[in-house]
Amino acid sequence: MCVCVRERGGEIAMDVKQAGLSLDSLVSSFNTRIAELQDLVVARNMYPASSITDLSAVDTTLKAMEHQLQQIKDRLREETLAIPKAKKLIKASLQQQQKLQSMSVYAPSYMPERGKVMHHDNTTCSTVEEPIKQDYSFGIQEPKEDPAPLIKEKKGRGSPPLWYITANELDSLSSYMRGRLTLDKINAAINDMAVYAEANSQLITAPRKKLTESTIEKALEIREIGMAEGVKGKHFFLETDVKGPSLKLDITGKAILTVLRHLGRISESRIGHHRVFILLRPQ
C-alpha cells in the first residue's frame, strides 16, 4: 500500500513539473509576441499611414527619371553613331574653307549689288533688278585660259562690266592719291558707274516708240555721243549722270574718279559740252 502511494506521488510530481515547463514555454511565447507587437507599434509611429502616399509619389518620380535616363542613353547612342559622319563633314568644311580663303585673296572686300536700272515706255517707268556679273578672272595670276568674252545682246552692248579693284591695287597707289579712300567706297562707286552706263545703253537700244517726251531728247543726245570715235561700242556715262548713291561729284567722288583713271578702269573725254567717262577693261 505504501509503495503504491509513493509511486502515485512520484507521478503527480512529474506531471506538475511538466505542467510548469509548459507554462514557462507559454509565458515565453507571450513575451515574444508582446515584443513583436511593441516593435510593430514603434514602426507604426515611425511610418504613419500618411507616408504611404509619399512613397507612391516617390515611386512615380523614380519611374519618370528612369524613363528620362533611358531616353538620354538612346540619344547618346544616336550621337555616337553620328560622330563618324560629323568628322567627315568637318573635314569637308575645312577643305572648303581653305578654298574660299585662297579665293578671297583675289576678290575685293566689297561686293555691291547691281542697282536698279530704269526702263522707259510711253506711260510709265519701271525698275528691274540687274544681276551681278563679276569678272572673277581679273587678278588671278597665270590663268589657265582666257576668260570667255561677254555675250552681246542682239540690240545692245550687253551688261556693263564690273571690274572691281583689289587691295593690292589700292595699296600700290601713293598716299596722296589714295587719301582716305577705302576699297569699299571705290568698288561701290564702280557699281554706280555700271548702273549709269546700263541706263545709257538702254536709251541707245530702246525703240523710238517706247521713248517718252522727257527721255527722247536725252536718248538722241546719248546716241550721238555713242557714235563718236573712241566711244562707239563701249559702255559710258556722262558727268551729269553722276548722282549717287555712292559716287557723287564732291571731293571724295572726284578723288575716286582720279584713282579709277590711274588704275585703268575708266578714260575721260569731252564730246561737245559733255564730259564723258568710258568704262575700260583693266590691262
From TrEMBL:
Signal peptide residue numbers: none
Regions annotated as coiled coil: 55-82
A Gene Ontology biological process term: chromosome segregation
Keyword check for Cytoplasm: no
A single GO molecular function term of this UniProt record: microtubule binding
One GO location term (cellular component): spindle microtubule
Name assigned to this protein: SKA complex subunit 1 homolog
Organism the protein comes from: Lactuca virosa
